Amino acid sequence: MRNPLTKLRAGLCALALCCPVAWGQGSQEVSHHMAPTGSLRAVINLGNPILARQDPATGQVMGVSVDLAQALAKQLQVPLTLIPVTSAGQSVEVVTRGQADVGFFAIDPVRGQGIAFTPPYVVIEGSYLVKQDSPLLRNEQVDQASHRVVVGLGSAYDLFLTRALTQAQLVRAPTSPQVVSFFMAGTYDVAAGVKQQLEADAQQTPGVRLLPGHFMLIEQAMGQPKDRSPLARETLARFVAEMKSSGFVRDSLQRHRIEGAVIAP
Fold first, then answer.
1. pLDDT at residue number 21
2. Which of 97, 119, 143, 147 has the fewest CB neighbours in a 10 Å radius?
């Protein structure tokens, strides 16, 4: 009997470049390793608007991460169960506890203690926002003892800045989408988050501006519980590679009108 990894490689090599297809016969073992409950459970973080959002009129969850989850379930030939959450911290917790089979995350070594990441599929920017009359003009000026920086609790920016800032104090808003409103409601100096989210918030919030450039580049990847099998890890890594090389991720970004995110090399 052929090794299941060999069957997986053969199936992936046969994928059409224009559209993902099922992996075909002999994929039951792969599906069992990826979705042991019989349904692919994918946690979707609605706190990152680049990857997912919820239509306010219909309640439908949509975005790049949803498209990827649907494509993976189709290739595994199993039903898909979406688990929407509102923060990165919740998403990490659900996957770490094994309550979801896959999730979509910014790669971070702290999260890596409980999650096995694929290589990244997109890279996005983390930026700072300040009030219009702030004396801050450059990212390098933020890390001062007198500054308080608002971040979303458990977000990639929270984890990164916890390590990177040596003097400024971090103040944590409940979720990333609440960062700017939290920032404006208090006497804070800087808000940190996804550049596109901050740009959108700035259009609705008079008297603020973004600092030029970025303070970090965020590699977005898929992840699964750390204790999943080597077969499951290779399956997910190869799936992400195919979704990048086939143009699936690029087309999804365009379809959802996402700007500022680039395909990871």
1. 37
2. 97
3-state class percentages of the chain: helix first, strand second, coil last, to nearest 5: 35, 25, 40
> Chunked in runs of 10, what are the mean pLDDT values of the chain (265 residues)?
42 38 60 96 90 90 96 96 93 95 92 93 93 97 98 87 95 92 96 89 94 92 96 96 96 86 86
Query: How far apart (Å, rounded) are the C-alpha atoms in residues 199 and 5?
Result: 44
The confidence score (pLDDT) of residue 25 equals 38
What pLDDT, on the 0 to 100 scale, is given for residue 260? 67
CA angle, residues 122, 180, 128, in degrees to nearest 5: 55
Three-state DSSP class for 187?
coil
The residues of the chain that CATH labels 3.40.190.10 are 4-122+220-263, 123-216
Q: What are residue 244's phi and psi, to 5 degrees?
A: -75, -50
Between CA 95 and CA 219 the distance in angstroms is 18
Q: How far apart are CA 28 and CA 81, in angstroms?
A: 18
3-class SS string, 23-54: CCCCCHHHHHHHCCCCCEEEEEECCCCCCCEE
Is 4-122+220-263 assigned to CATH 2.115.10.20? no
**Which numeric CATH code is attached to 123-216?**
3.40.190.10
Nearest to 257 by CA among 46, 49, 45: 49
CA distances from 177 to 128, 189, 190 (A): 14, 18, 15
Q: What is the pLDDT at residue 24?
A: 44
* pLDDT value of position 1: 43
